[in-house]
Every structure is written in structure tokens, then in C-alpha cells.
Design brief:
There is one protein chain. This protein is mainly α. It is 86% helix and 0% strand. Helix 2 packs antiparallel against helix 3 and helix 3 runs antiparallel to helix 4. The radius of gyration is 18 Å and the shape is flat.
């Protein structure tokens, strides 16, 4: 069973859960994003947002946290490959951070579309 198709998938899922746990436990950027995710989820329950709004909200949360995780992995790999300062490594890290920024700004825009009508119904 261990080397079967299903066994490998189960083992891979275990590695993924371990990776998510390591991110939440050790990475301040993921911890901040997780706290924001909890906050907007509480806001969603408070304002009783629609199923469609939940879908957009969870998609935005997932994309931001995934981008943050990939950014963390890219930075760790870059530091491992070239621990000293190097302009090309810095460029790679900046691009990865830029991807997180784009997803975060998109998530804020989605949150504004969802919550502003609840907070300011006369808009």
C-alpha cells in the first residue's frame, strides 16, 4: 500500500499538511494573513454575506496565503542557493514579493466590494 498510487497520494497529503503547519507556526507573514482571514471570516458571519460573497472571500484568502507560501519557499531556496547578498537573488525575491502584493491588493478590492455595501448601505 505504501508505494501504491493511493499510498503515495496520502503520503503527499501528509507532507502538504506538514508544510502548511510549518508556515503557520514559523512564518510571521503567513500568521498575519491567517489573522486577517479569521477577522474577515468573523465579519462575514456578522454581516451574513451571501454564498457567492463567501466564495469570493475564501478564494481571495486562499490565493493570498498560497502566494505567501510560495514567496516564502522561493526566498528560502534563494537564500540556500546563495546565502550572501546578490543583486539577482534580490531581484528574484522582489518579484516573488510583488506577486504576494498583487494578490493582497486584489483581496482588499474583493473585500471592499463585499463589505462596503454592508458597512455603508447608502453608497
Amino acid at each position: 500500500m505504501r508505494d501504491s498510487f493511493l499510498g503515495k497520494r496520502i503520503r503527499g497529503g501528509g507532507y502538504a499538511i506538514k508544510g502548511a503547519w510549518l508556515l503557520l507556526k514559523h512564518e510571521p507573514s503567513i500568521q498575519v494573513q491567517f489573522a486577517i482571514a479569521i477577522f474577515v471570516s468573523i465579519a462575514g458571519w456578522f454581516f451574513e454575506i451571501t454564498k457567492t460573497e463567501w466564495l469570493f472571500q475564501f478564494t481571495a484568502i486562499g490565493l493570498v496565503m498560497a502566494a505567501e507560501g510560495l514567496n516564502t519557499a522561493i526566498e528560502a531556496m534563494a537564500d540556500f542557493v546563495h546565502p550572501d547578498f546578490h543583486s539577482k537573488i534580490g531581484h528574484i525575491k522582489d518579484i516573488a514579493a510583488g506577486a504576494v502584493f498583487i494578490t493582497a491588493v486584489t483581496a482588499v478590492i474583493i473585500a471592499a466590494f463585499i463589505y462596503l455595501p454592508y458597512i455603508f448601505p447608502d453608497l
